[in-house]
Amino acid sequence: MKLIIDNITMKYKDKIAVENFTVKLDKGVYGFLGPNGSGKTTLMRVLADLLRPTKGRILLNDRDISTMGDDYRDILGYLPQSFGFYKSFTAHKFMMYIAALKGIDQSKALKKVDELLELVNLKEHCKRKIGKFSGGMKQRIGIAQALINDPKILILDEPTAGLDPKERIRFRNLISEISKDRIVLLSTHIVSDIEYIAKEVILIKEGKLLGIDSPDNILENMKGKVWKGTTTEERFRNIKNDYKISNVVRKNGVQLRIISDKKPFLKAIEAEPRLEDMYLYYFDKEVEE
Ligand SMILES: Nc1ncnc2c1ncn2[C@@H]1O[C@H](COP(=O)(O)OP(=O)(O)OP(=O)(O)O)[C@@H](O)[C@H]1O
């Protein structure tokens, strides 16, 4: 299976949200990483065939998805950024409803819904109303509904927004489990969401592709750009505006972690890069979280 984002540009009136964006994808998890407003949602909606791009095409095995109709929808699962739940539905009823919308017959649907509620760890809550669910539970039912047709392509737009750290870990493990034999596209501005599960990280900045690489290669390329060391309050005041500082701890002086192409001060030593250092390097802002 081969999915190609082929030179996509998307304009809203005068605003260019995505520009000349090209990447080739096959099986596995792809993390689309970029700050708010960088064009991730727009790209996810184009990929879900909900938005016609101003220019370019999405090709699945060389077919333009905009000409595929139900052939594409049948293999697509989509969890939008804001997901309208039917609050008064129980989890089970909601899933059966989605199955019916997808044209799955009832006996098959009953089996599939059971399987999916089990997968996302909501079986024991299947009789509860979704309106009473926590944020994490809602996201899990969101994933379950996106999987109802066993999609070959799964699009998850900022799926961990509003989840606490425990729910996030659980969510990550779930994605990892369901990513076999599928293309999973996951958009986020949170590095840790994709750090351990993405085969490739796709960096998106101001609507443009900044780079695509495996987390290991990204870390390799960050070598020599991350520094740590202890300095004085005075020197810290002097250098803090000249460098991207990813961490400050005041303990026996000012302990710093700095992102820089060159050594920031004499006593600084190279540190082992982390993926969030890369975020700071490319996106030039404080690491969120
Ligand atoms: N319907 C619209 N009309 C006009 N501009 C839009 C529209 N939708 C998005 N934009 C603009 O396009 C740019 C990209 O937005 P998009 O939502 O795709 O980014 P994002 O990376 O998903 O950000 P977020 O995480 O905040 O949703 C932003 O500048 C946004 O303001």
From TrEMBL:
One function term, GO molecular function aspect: ATP binding
Pfam families in the cross-refs: ABC_tran
ABC transporter domain sequence ranges: 3-248
Alphabetical UniProt keywords: ATP-binding, Nucleotide-binding, Transport
PROSITE patterns registered for this protein in UniProt: ABC_TRANSPORTER_1 (PS00211), ABC_TRANSPORTER_2 (PS50893)
UniProt keyword annotation of Acetylation present: no
CDD domains, alphabetized: ABC_drug_resistance_like
Keyword Nucleotidyltransferase: no
PANTHER family to which the protein is assigned, alphabetical: ABC TRANSPORTER, ATP-BINDING PROTEIN
Family assignment from sequence similarity: Belongs to the ABC transporter superfamily.
Protein name from the UniProt record: ABC transporter ATP-binding protein
